Amino acid sequence: MMRTDVIDLGDGWGAEDEVVLPPRRVPELRRRVACALVLLLAGTLGAAAAPVREIAELGRFDLVGASTRSGGDTVQSAGDLLVVQGDVAVSAYRITDGTLRWRVPHSSAESEHGMVMGANGVVLLADSAQTTAFDAETGATLWSRQRGVYPVGDIGVELINNATVWEQSPGGPAPGPDTVTGFDLRTGRTLWTVLGTPYATVDHERRLTVTATADGAIAVYDARDGRPLRRGEAKFPAGRPMYLSAYSGVLRLASADPAGGGLSYLGYDLTTLRPLPTDADFGYPCGRYRCEEHVDQTSGNIRVTVVDPQTRAVRWQPGPNTSLVPIAAGFIVVDATRSYGRYANYADRLVDPDSGRTLLDLTGWLILGAEDGSQDYLLVRDAGQSTQVARIVGGGVRMLGVLPDRIQQCVYRAARLSCVVGEGPGRLVIWRVDEQGGR
Predict the structure, then answer these.
(1) What is the DSSP string of 248-299?
(2) CA atoms lying within 13 Å on the CB side of residue 139
(3) Which residues contact 25 (CB under 8 A, 6 or more apart)?
């Protein structure tokens, strides 16, 4: 018989029918694009087929009350755990079958849910007020700190933007330089500190810390141990230097127009510090091409251009505020301005990578990428009182099955689809997804 357990979370929580996030600042939109890149879907296209019962329900767990906080997701994954935030406790369930691993007292004064992350046998729960580290096996509290700490490899890293905040709202003496600190995830012990000069940032993907002077003197450090790696120069644009950011090997320096015309940016390769094309704020591989992203500083719209990686000859452009997810047979165009929960993106269409010609209409489908690094994915679509689940196979959308519920938020990891469903407190349901399905 299917198990039905009770998850005790506190009082007063109600899952919204749909989580639609408003347009965000450019760095946060870029994070959303990165979430789409996690999908990097592998496979070929094929003809549509009837449901083949490739999904099996493993268990359903009542969410009796839950956190009254809004924003973010109540249920998040960390390694092989589903971590559920409540008003007075945090619970962790085994993602494979829903077995309760631990429940410990925990509360926060913040009005929104924190972000859950896992690394090195530790679960980090971070919100804007504090970060708490729990032992992933027992739930024992290891340490707590009144700032945001995020895993970079096997250590925790904290970035304090003193200089950046002051530059954005000058007045009075500067509070000091930006500061980056590395911590032992198990003990909370400080491992190293790098002071900005006065600016600093962290490239989490490349595990690097970068500092910059207003004159553009750059220093790069290994974020795992604080060890200096190299130095060089990368000039800020004309105007008043504001901040620097780094993502996946791209360094961007921002300055404010003294005449009030907004921000301008210059990008550099973080390894060589060679300038990147001025018309591309961010780039990433798109199959045999390269996708270059530009943000219009007046409208805030994101524009992606598909270019030849050698000559930079333009192939085509999708519409504004879209991102591209490369798959074997083309690109999936997704909405760059909103997401459904943390990891699902709104799909629009499958297009030919050479011309942008539409191959398959995906309106109404969400793409849910696996969080386990497998590059697996699912397509999910609301069907009234149920939810369709599919993959793209052999030229069309192949149905894997129909869930008997409307989903509120989902986590897909290790061939397990875990979703909050239903009205009011809702329930957590875990399904096994057949790994032999097409990709």
Answers:
(1) TTEEEEEEE-TTS--EEEEEEETTT-PBPPTT-SEEEEETTEEEEEEE-TTT
(2) 17
(3) none
- Cα distance between residue 238 and residue 256, in whole Å: 8
Residue with tokens 């600190």: 181
Burial class (CB in 10 A: 0-12, 13-18, 19+), 188: middle
Q: Where are the domains of the chain?
A: 3-154+224-234+275-433
Distance of CA 62 to the CA centre of its chain: 27
From the list 383, 368, 308, 279, the residue with the least C-alpha distance to 332 is 368
| Sign, Cα dihedral of 134, 140, 142, 148 | positive
d(CA 130, CA 356): 45
Helix (H, G, I), strand (E, B) or coil at 201: strand
DSSP 72: S
Share of the chain above pLDDT 70, in %: 76
pLDDT greater than 80 at residue 216: yes
Residue 7 above 80 pLDDT?
no
pLDDT of residue 24: 29
Answer for the pair 318, 352: CB distance below 8 angstroms, yes or no: no
- Report the distance separating Cα 293 and Cα 291, nearest Å: 7
**Cβ(414)–Cβ(95) below 8 Å:** yes
Q: Is the pLDDT of residue 436 over 60?
A: no
For residue 233, the 8-state DSSP code is E
Contact 43, 327 (CB under 8 A): yes
Query: Model-level pTM?
Result: 0.75
User: Cα–Cα–Cα angle for 278, 281, 287, nearest 5°?
Assistant: 110
Cβ-proximal residues to 3 (8 Å cutoff; 6+ apart), any chain: 59, 60, 98
- Structure confidence at residue 40 (pLDDT): 36
Average pLDDT over residues 177-191: 95
Tokens of 226: 């604080």
Tell me phi and psi for residue 355, to 5 degrees: -125, -15
Query: pLDDT of 240-259, one tens digit each?
Result: 898 899 988 889 998 988 77
Q: What pLDDT, in 10s, does the model give residues 392-425?
A: 888 799 999 999 998 878 889 888 999 888 766 5
Quote the DSSP letter at residue 237.
Answer: P
The full length of the chain comes to 439
Q: Distances from the Cα of 301 to the Cαs of 277, 285, 297, 307, 363, in angstroms?
A: 19, 21, 8, 19, 21
Q: Are strands 427-433 and 55-64 parallel, antiparallel or unpaired?
A: antiparallel
